[in-house]
Design goal:
Radius of gyration: 24 Å
Structural class: alpha/beta
Bound molecules: adenosine-5'-triphosphate
Strand order of the largest sheet: 6-7-8-3-9-10
Oligomer: single chain
Organism: Rugosimonospora acidiphila
GO molecular function, one term: ATP binding
Keywords: ATP-binding, Cell membrane, Membrane, Nucleotide-binding, Repeat, Sugar transport, Translocase, Transport
Distance between the termini: 50 Å
Protein name: Sugar ABC transporter ATP-binding protein
Length: 512
């Protein structure tokens, strides 16, 4: 029998006194897609970071690749030479550098005598890798100018280069999280093409539909332990996997919402907004209402949260919150905040949280300034706010002094959402709020938004491509196309209908 492509044996990791990975085992066969799933904080990223050499495991671990011992220690150069490569959640690209520099870093070839890098040759190699992925991105483009899906393709091209197809393994750590729904089928085809050539894939994902569609087998982690090793996906179901991951069944009903009084005046009014891809976007969100905005790539829903919160300039239009109204062009973050608008951005690490500051500081610093409290009063207020956040969204571990960067991705997301939710803004605007959040916590997060809208009258606008989330929590969903509202869906919302409307609008333009 062929040896396994990747074997992880007896691998544990302890931070301080907390053992977050406990004797993990994982075996990936040649040419298979192997899913790695588990709830937030279950140890998936820790295991991947051990494989990539970022964390050193506790003693006793052994990692083998194509039958030979690879580590620990896991040396990055040795991993790449052996054919074990990674695409991390944050993609790990340097925005100010070009695509070619990002892809070829560490692999640039020099002329024999001149020692100069032959850039044209390097760019041709990169163009070839991109073409394999069905992309025609110009290798000289700075990464900063690329869309998120394009950045995803670049990160994958970097992981694939120079591989020996029949001996390599690519680890995709939540790499599909940044890709819009309509490019996913293409991405899945790439994965199938790779495995057909003999490459193995490890896929870490919170999307159980993706895991069931794409993987041959799956390994399930719970609280740092493997609770299901190499389960055949064809013989399993979403419900079974969910129960293994969480240890309980998740309710999937639509979240109850009170009957809306449609005569209520709007809390947020946007009139004829022009900004980036937005072209005359007009709509309202009433007090206590949750409105979803969605659409295909470049429809404008991605841009909207930032324009409303004054984080991106608008060229025309008006934005009003209750009785106060402003030309959108005059809006900046400070003015938006004075109007009562708060933003939960998509980019958690870049714009949302300060990763080196504590959970307590992240949660309360935006509000503690300006309060003329005595130090100790401020301190006890901070601790109370932290307890509220933990209660609201179940942040784990609930340690106020931990640095935000030491939380798992999903728990960072919960921290970010609670930071703004607890401020009780008049208008809360969120971009992909459930990203990286596991299936159980996702419902808790949506329920918390629903409660805030119902109990405090907060007007909530959610920009997302997660049709299921929008259908379960929103009062209305607006589907954007070409920067303006093309459809308004209300009443009994249905995820399939939301997707159908978004895609139906995307198709004609994709063909042109
Ligand atoms: N550098 C660190 N120091 C201390 N604790 C850490 C550190 N990195 C991770 N942890 C803890 O290890 C546990 C596992 O985290 P990990 O990121 O592996 O979870 P995960 O399964 O990838 O979660 P998610 O789905 O939310 O990304 C968490 O409790 C986290 O807070």
């Amino acid at each position: 029998m062929d040896s396994a492509r990747l074997e992880v044996h007896n691998t544990s990791k302890t931070f301080g006194s907390a053992r977050v990975l406990d004797r993990a085992e994982l075996t990936v066969a040649p040419g298979e897609v192997h899913g790695l799933i588990g709830q937030n904080g279950s140890g998936k990223s820790t295991l991947i970071k051990i494989l990539s050499g970022f964390h050193t495991p506790d003693g006793g671990a052994e990692i083998r690749f194509n039958g030979a011992r690879l580590g620990p220690p896991m040396r990055p150069k040795r991993l790449a030479d052996a054919g074990l490569t990674f695409v991390h959640q944050d993609l790990g690209l340097v925005p100010r550098l070009s695509v070619v520099e990002n892809v070829r870093v560490g692999r640039l070839r020099h002329g024999r005598f001149s020692r100069r890098v032959r850039w044209q040759h390097e760019a041709a190699l990169v163009a070839e890798s991109l073409a394999f992925l069905g992309s025609d991105i110009d290798p000289w483009t700075p990464v900063a100018q690329l869309t998120l899906p394009q950045r995803g393709v670049v990160a994958i091209a970097r992981a694939l280069q120079g591989r020996d197809r029949e001996r390599s393994c690519v680890v995709l750590d939540e790499a599909t999280q940044n890709l819009p729904k309509e490019v996913l089928p293409e991405f899945y085809q790439i994965i199938r093409r790779l495995t057909a050539e003999g490459t193995s894939i490890v896929l870490v994902s919170h999307r159980l539909d993706e895991i069931l569609d794409l993987t041959d087998r799956v390994t399930v982690l719970r609280d740092g332990r493997v609770v299901g090793g190499g389960i055949r996906t064809a013989e399993s179901s979403e419900g079974e996997l969910m129960e293994l991951m969480l240890g309980y069944e998740v309710e999937r009903d639509r979240i109850d919402r009170p009957d809306r009084d449609s005569s209520q005046p709007p809390a947020l009014t946007c009139e004829d907004l022009f900004a980036g891809t937005l072209r005359s976007a007009s709509f309202t969100v009433r007090r206590g209402e949750i409105v979803g905005v969605t659409g295909a790539v470049d429809a404008g829903h991605d841009e909207l949260p930032y324009v409303i919160a004054g984080a991106r300039p608008a060229s025309a239009g008006r934005i009003s919150v209750n009785d106060e109204s402003l030309a959108a062009r005059a809006l900046d973050v400070a003015r938006a905040s004075r109007l009562g608008i708060a933003l939960v951005p998509r980019d958690r690490s870049g714009e949302g949280l300060a990763m080196t500051l504590s959970l307590l500081e992240n949660l309360t610093v935006p509000r503690i300034h300006g309060r003329r409290w005595r130090f100790w009063l401020g301190r006890s207020w901070q601790r109370r706010e932290f307890s509220r956040a933990v209660e609201l969204l179940g942040i784990v571990p609930p340690r106020p002094d931990l640095a935000a960067g030491q939380l798992s991705g999903g728990n960072q997301q919960k921290l970010l959402v609670s930071k703004w939710l607890l401020q009780n803004p008049a208008v809360l605007v969120l971009h992909e709020p459930t990203q990286a959040v596991d299936v159980g916590a996702r419902r808790e997060l949506l329920l918390a938004l629903r409660r805030a809208a119902d109990e405090t009258g907060m007007a909530v606008l959610i920009s997302s491509i997660e049709a299921e989330d929008l259908a379960s929590v929103c009062d209305r969903v607006l589907v954007l196309d070409g920067g303006a509202v093309a459809h308004e869906l209300a009443g009994e919302l249905d995820a399939d209908l939301i997707l159908e409307k978004s895609f139906a609008l995307a198709e004609p333009s994709a063909a042109s």
